[in-house]
């Protein structure tokens, strides 16, 4: 049985991935679980998840642009212990701040992005600044070269993930953004993981035809801490599989503002994003009302108002794109990288090959 699956190359996960990626004819999305709204056809797998509202005060949540934890709509999935889906817990008008951070701030140096591979640091120094003019101008009708922002595919934060060796290393670390660190700390605390320490982040930038292949995130050395995932902009079909690559997955919609927490037995599950789909209209228009947000902000808020100019660029970008942020704790308390995993040596070795 296993041999025939391997021969045909069509195990259940790959089959499902191809099904949802297909353009012609487009797939039927009727089996994709949608946690947003009232869940008109509740899927029997979906169960309410219990959070811990006492761990995050309403004031602390509001500083980050989050609703009080008791109002969050959180779900689990039968058969996936430790998986928690939080359906957009952001206060209306606060997503634009996080979108702006993902597009304008987090791609800045010393963070690392895909463009660094073929460009010099001075060329990738100011991706936002070099892109805003073209992105704010009305289309000229001519074929314009893509801006750096449009060519951005990934950014790494904190311990920078090495895509070749699939490792993190002690000597490849830069300061993790404090605002995202605090947001992650509070989300994890509400989900029963007090003390979560965001040490690495990967931002993925998806265009409408992008996808992300089947993988498991296992490079972190401490798997007792959850993996957090936040999404903004257009929606995605997310496939959540099992502990084996070929296990059949469950398909979920991930909309703007939605969060996933993969913990416990679900921390090391295979997953993939076969397709980006247009966001339901009301999600983007209502949730992204940024200019009405300013009066409701507290004095010590982390979330700041986004200027009209910045928002013009961000809103144009997310009309056809999705940004996903995964946040990871790499090391447990007191843990350090083993000597043998010195990525400096591993890296040199590869270059000499
Ligand atoms: O885009 C997503 O929803 C998933 C991203 C992901 O799996 C990753 O960055 O490891
Ligand atoms: Fe992943």
TrEMBL record:
Keywords for this protein: Dioxygenase, DNA damage, DNA repair, Iron, Lyase, Metal-binding, Multifunctional enzyme, Nucleus, Oxidoreductase, RNA repair, Transcription, Transcription regulation, Translation regulation
Enzyme Commission number(s) of this protein: 1.14.11.33, 1.14.11.51, 4.2.99.18
A single BP term in Gene Ontology: DNA repair
Molecular function GO labels: broad specificity oxidative DNA demethylase activity; class I DNA-(apurinic or apyrimidinic site) endonuclease activity; DNA N6-methyladenine demethylase activity; ferrous iron binding; oxidative RNA demethylase activity
Chief location: nucleus
Cofactor field: Fe(2+)
Cofactor comment text: Binds 1 Fe(2+) ion per subunit.
Regions annotated as coiled coil: none
Domain Fe2OG dioxygenase stretches: 196-331
Name of the protein in its database record: Nucleic acid dioxygenase ALKBH1
Protein source organism: Mastacembelus armatus (zig-zag eel)
């Amino acid at each position: 049985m296993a041999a025939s699956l391997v021969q045909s190359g069509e195990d259940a996960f790959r089959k499902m991935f191809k099904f949802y990626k297909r353009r012609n004819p487009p797939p039927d999305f009727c089996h994709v679980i949608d946690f947003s709204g009232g869940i008109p056809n509740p899927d029997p797998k979906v169960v309410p998840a219990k959070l811990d509202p006492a761990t995050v005060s309403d004031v602390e949540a509001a500083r980050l642009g989050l609703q009080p934890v008791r109002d969050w709509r959180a779900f689990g999935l039968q058969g996936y212990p430790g998986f928690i889906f939080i359906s957009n817990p952001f206060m209306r008008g606060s997503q634009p701040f996080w979108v702006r951070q993902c597009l304008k701030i987090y791609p800045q140096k010393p963070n690392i992005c895909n463009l660094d591979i073929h460009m010099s640091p001075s060329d990738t120094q100011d991706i936002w600044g070099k892109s805003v003019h073209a992105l704010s101008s009305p289309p000229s009708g001519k074929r314009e070269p893509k801006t750096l922002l449009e060519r951005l595919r990934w950014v790494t934060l904190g311990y920078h993930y090495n895509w070749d060796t699939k490792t993190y290393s002690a000597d490849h670390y830069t300061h993790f953004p404090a605002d995202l660190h605090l947001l992650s700390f509070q989300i994890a605390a509400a989900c029963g993981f007090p003390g979560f320490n965001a040490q690495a982040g990967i931002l993925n930038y998806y265009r409408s035809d992008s996808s992300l292949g089947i993988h498991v995130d296992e490079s972190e050395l401490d798997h007792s801490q959850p993996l957090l995932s936040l999404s903004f902009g257009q929606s995605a079909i997310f496939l959540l599989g099992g502990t084996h690559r070929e296990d059949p997955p469950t398909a979920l919609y991930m909309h703007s503002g939605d969060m996933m927490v993969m913990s416990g037995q679900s921390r090391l599950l295979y997953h993939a994003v076969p397709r980006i789909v247009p966001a339901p209209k009301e999600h983007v228009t209502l949730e992204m009302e940024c200019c009405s947000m300013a009066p409701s902000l507290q004095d010590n808020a982390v979330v700041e108002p986004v200027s009209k100019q910045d928002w013009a660029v961000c809103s144009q970008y997310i009309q056809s794109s999705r940004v996903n942020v995964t946040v990871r704790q790499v090391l447990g308390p007191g843990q350090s990288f083993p000597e043998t995993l010195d990525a400096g040596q591993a890296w040199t070795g590869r270059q000499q090959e």
